[in-house]
Amino acid sequence: MGVRGTSAGGRVVSLDTLVRMKRDLQSAPRPRTPLRLPIPDGMTAPLGCDAVAVPARFGPRVLPRLPRVGCVYADEGHWWWLVPADSDYALEWPAPSHYATGAVLLDAPRVPPLMHRPADTLPYTPPIPLYLALCQVTGTIPTWSRPISA
What we know:
By secondary structure, the protein is of the alpha+beta class. The chain has helices at residues 15-27, 59-62, 127-138, and strands at residues 2-3, 13-14, 35-36, 50-55, 72-74, 78-83, 98-100, 104-105, 114-116. The longest helix is centred in the N-terminal third of the chain and has 13 residues, at 15-27.
């Protein structure tokens, strides 16, 4: 037996349909709440905080190329470097790196463990040396070295 809608063009929906729709909504995967890389206790981020992620295979090749290493979070799939906010201004970070505004991790099941913490109170890896190191390991020409097309 169906339930009639109003005379204004309502649709007949059976009770079985309503129950099935409710079950479908309850069993549908819910989107994950985005996670944020934390600033470790005792550290400050006066310039805000973003992150640059790269596949884990590049991490060990990038580290020795950096003059200073800030906080680095790592798991089996990715490494994340904390950088000052807006470090993507006028930079195209080389693929396959990913720039995460606000150090927000999309599609991460959990916050990865902190792999490296600097001795001082600033969590940042300098963005320009990080950018150049990533360009080196990915074989990408830095944006300011590319020819200008007319």
